[in-house]
Amino acid sequence: MNDYPGIEMNLAQLTRNSVKEKLSAKGTVLSMTVTFGRGSEIARVAKAAGFDSLYVDLEHSTIDLRDAGQICLAAQELGLTPFIRVADWRGADIGRALDAGAMGIIAPHVETAEDAREIVRQARYFPLGERSASPQLPLLGYRQFPVDDVFRAVNDATMVTVMLESERALDNLEAIADVDGVDMVFVGTYDLSMDMGIPGDVCHPRVRSALRHVVETCRRAGKFVGIGGMAGQPDELSIWIAAGAQFISCGTDLGFLIKGSTLAAQRIGEISSKVEQRHE
User: Fold this and answer.
1) What CATH number should be reported for the domain whose range is 8-278?
2) Which residues pair with 85 in a beta bridge?
3) Which of 93, 37, 33, 81 is nearest to 57 (CA)?
4) What mean pLDDT value characterizes the chain?
């Protein structure tokens, strides 16, 4: 007899990860990186813009964990899958990010299979890992369910993403991709190009060769592929989407703000200049 009527339905609804579902269905996921927004409004902006996901970047911003958690919870309620890129996966950042409301973590600067196994250990509950149990999870709306059911549902929903950003990581790619519990390998093309000594040249033949290697290796290992740092190169990006990259980091909220406001200022400035010239 089930002492918790509707538990299966409730847990399934509360922990549904639409990004994981879309990736499994071979769809392309569009994600916005949050580095500037501090309130839940940024989640509504991302939803209105048509993104599938957002990730709050704690590595390259001054956003604190409390604000990151509020953004994640707002995104979840909108049907937008929220992730957090942790600043340092070697400490307590992973567990705290997940406890705050993220439906997955992005771990930067992963270079070995040992790194990946440690990240999985911290991100997944027993029996897949050793994530510490929290008595109340915002992801579950602070509802109480049997611990075994929670562990199973949250493990299934949580995405573990490791970032590849160096040639050393490329050398260890097969072993990293084979680690159980890793869902996605996310290539930071800009940092990778810097490590290769060709900073910013994300279309360089060496970067292309690396991406081809990642896509092929992850396909064999059954892992998803993400790409960042290439939103400004749509023709190049289309090659890798066609090849099998599915999670696309489309840019930062601050970058969108700067680009949009600059374009608006230029357009109005041009109109003003034309009007002034007619009156000279």
Assistant:
1) 3.20.20.60
2) 57, 106
3) 33
4) 94
